[in-house]
TrEMBL record:
Highest taxon of the lineage: Bacteria
Compositionally biased tracts (Basic and acidic residues): 164-177
Protein name stated in the entry: DUF3305 domain-containing protein
Pfam family, one: DUF3305
Region (Disordered): 150-177
Amino acid sequence: MNQPTDDSLTAPTEIRVAVVIERHARPSAWEEWRFSLAEVLIDEGQWGNQPRCLRDDGQRASFLYPGFPVRLHRDEGEGYYLNLSSGAPVWFVMWRIDDENASQAAPETVTLSYNEAGRLLDAQERVDNLPLPETVRAWLQAWTDANYRPEPKKRRRPASFVDPSRRGPRDDAPECA
């Protein structure tokens, strides 16, 4: 991965990643298969461009899916800011179980935007997350610092300066019985 620069015009806005998904056979009496997100790795071309099985012992298997672009978009700045300010920034990976072969699952998209992950969850998609490595966190922080400014908080006027007809109920007012 290229190191970020302070100049947002020359800073990279995309990295490529590979996703590792683990499959567990018969994890319970009610499940045939269980899938979990195992790793998100920086992909500099070392894994080619085809998915492959890393290991399969009959009970547990790991599958590598290379070549996912993670792009930073100006209109997702708030989502990156929210991810970074959460205290534990993460990768968000949306994945699906294959409709024709329930023993297979594959990632569909990888994002760093908290808002985009929320939209995917609202659409009933499966989204899991894993912690960001420090190098990616620093890259995302530099990009966010250069390209996003949170909305300033609006000052709330004291109720004494608001027209009485527009005031809400007082919290300290006695209740009528």
